[in-house]
Amino acid sequence: MDVRLSPEQVALRDSAAQAVDRLGPHAVRALDDPERAGKLDAAVAASGWRELRAATDDGAPWASGVEVALVAEELGRGLADTPFLGPTLAAELRRLVGARPAGDHETVALAPDLTALANGTAEGAVAVDTQGAMAALLTVPTPAGDHAVARVLLPEGASRVDLTRPVAGLGPATALNPLPDAARSLSEDDLARWTALGLAITSADLVGTMRGAVQLASDYAKQRRQYGRPIGSFQAVQHLLADAFVATEGSRSATLHAAWAVDALPPAEALAAAAVAKAYCARAARTVCETAIQVHGGIGNTWECLAHVYLRRALLATDILGGTGPNLARVLDHHGIGGGRGLR
Amino acid sequence: MDFGDSREEAAFRARLREWLRTHNPGLPASSTSDDYWAGQAAWHQALYDAGFFGLSWPRDIGGQALPSVYDVIVDEQLAAAGAPPRPSLGYLVQGILAHGNEDVRSRFLPGIVNGRDRWCQGFSEPDAGSDLASLRTRAERDGDDYVITGHKVWTSYSDVADWCLLLARTDPDVPKHKGLSAFRISMRQPGIQQRPLKMINGITSEFGEVLFDGARVPAADMIGAPGEGWRLAMTVVSHEREPGELGYVARYKKLVKELTAMVRDHPERYGPEQVRDLGWALVEAEMLRLHVCRRLSDRLDGITHGPEGSVDKLLMTQVEQAVGHAALSVGGAAHGDGDDTWLKVYLYSRAQSVMGGTSQIQRNLVAGRILGLPT
Lengths: 344, 375
Description:
The complex is a heterodimer of chains A (344) and B (375).
Chain A: H1 7-23, H2 34-47, H3 65-77, H4 85-96, E1 106-110, E2 126-128, E3 135-141, E4 147-153, E5 167-169, E6 177-178, H5 188-223, E7 225-226, E8 229-230, H6 235-264, H7 267-295, H8 297-300, H9 307-319, H10 324-334
Parallel strand pairs in A: 1-3
Antiparallel strand pairs in A: 1-2, 2-5, 3-4, 4-6, 7-8
Chain B: H1 7-23, H2 34-49, H3 70-81, H4 90-99, H5 102-114, E1 119-122, E2 138-142, E3 145-156, E4 163-169, E5 180-186, E6 192-197, E7 207-218, E8 222-223, H6 229-240, H7 243-246, H8 248-265, H9 272-298, H10 308-331, H11 341-349, H12 359-370
Helix pairs in contact in B: 1-3, 3-8, 4-5, 4-6, 6-10, 8-9, 8-10, 9-10, 10-11, 10-12
């Protein structure tokens, strides 16, 4: 056991950090700067990070869940308003069924409650991280009882809970087209592993979001003065931020393991590891982002403060493949307690 | 990055698993019964003699100089077997290793590691809890000895200890942090009186107070230089805050495993709120195991005695108290047959946010020393 990052992993993390530090939105108004956003998108496209889960010649992914999580964490920390989660999860589906990489921008469509990949119908399904995407992947049941991967074209328009990543609802009439070049369909094990990857990415995204929110609020607490002192000198404020930092560290430990487990453990174990991380991160992230707003006081409740952008990003990452309820249920299921299903 | 076992680690794990099949003493949880404390020394010695304790410490004090990550393997296997956790005394070893001279290290440490010498830690006093540096116990030079006068309290294992790691004031004329020195003092002498304290869960053999009235300690048994006591104490408490040093992952995993079995065997008895509390206990205990994997892996780059221990202490506290809440929720407080096992687990969990430095003190340290917030 040695859970330190390798030098290559450190280098990957550092280059993702540099990309968002240079080109990410450092103020709310920067979200409306198409030139900056275009440069960030181009930098991420050129990096190859969206293809980390594409298949090599032997069908294995180019990189493990750990590399994916390291990139996701830095993109979350920097509020990257460019697709990563969507194309990564779509590439993983194509890899699992042995289909060629998409020729255009593609994402995935989730069930209406977002807790699983959409299956069988596009009606009410929600495509996530849709910026620039032409289509989304979902599954359709096969007569043999497993799942084929199908592709639907995305409608115009999108909604933005998360100001950095749009989502789009799909209509009933959307045609489902099975991938013509798929070599096989998805087994339950494949779906478990795919879900584990999705939970690991969203957990890492939450860890990054928490790190960014804690940094933002700590910086503010050192500058903002009341009663003639920086507010960060008051214990009441210090303890809020200390708790936020601690929650972030625990989240990161669980997430690193989940990211490793995606490829290293059997599917059921990988899914359980991912559910532990996601439940922990989802609970932590909401509190941490709320703390960031609280520390900013009145300013934190205005649109111009970045704190709510972190919270909004956390809310979407939480919902994708489920927050605390569905993942506590997955953990309990893994320990033979099915009654956890009532927790949603 | 790899959470999996190397070949050597897998072989070690298999050896430990096999040994535990015949050597699990089946003691009750430390938080529920005085019987645990009665059997703890024998368990320590058995674990050490079989080669499963003191793994990461230097060979010359009885360790095996293995990477610290072996300790997680021990925790995992102890919990899986339902065996007691490993003894919680690594913080004493770290403190003496960091501050003791060669003579002190070679005389004091082997007995701690192999479990033949039992130690307690005399830091807190009635008027010096969080404000430890204000402690008043005096150590006055008298020939080759120091003479100790004072009152220590909330002292774990004071009833069975042969020795005490004592923090006392050797110089009353300098600022409070600078006048303290550390000693190893024998608990078996006329100038020392030990009294048990009953904890809120009814346990009487863990906790005590110690009165020093003319007790003597040879000057050669000072650990570190005169005035170095505060620094030693900070090294000790920084490790006393680390679940990887304490071995508490095994304690929490064992309790959660028992609660899980109760719900799995009789799902009809438990409602969604109880199941939710158990779910969080499962998540929290697993998080702590993984956090310890991370921290002990970081030690491959060398041991540090920094403020990260405060982060770990706060995480560990959250875990212990989540497990305590699950114990209360699933195990229940009131039973017609008077069985208060799970109530005791719950009540014991309240101490975790106080012992080794309160959660409020830990938050101060995280805010100041990690986040860099102003004072």
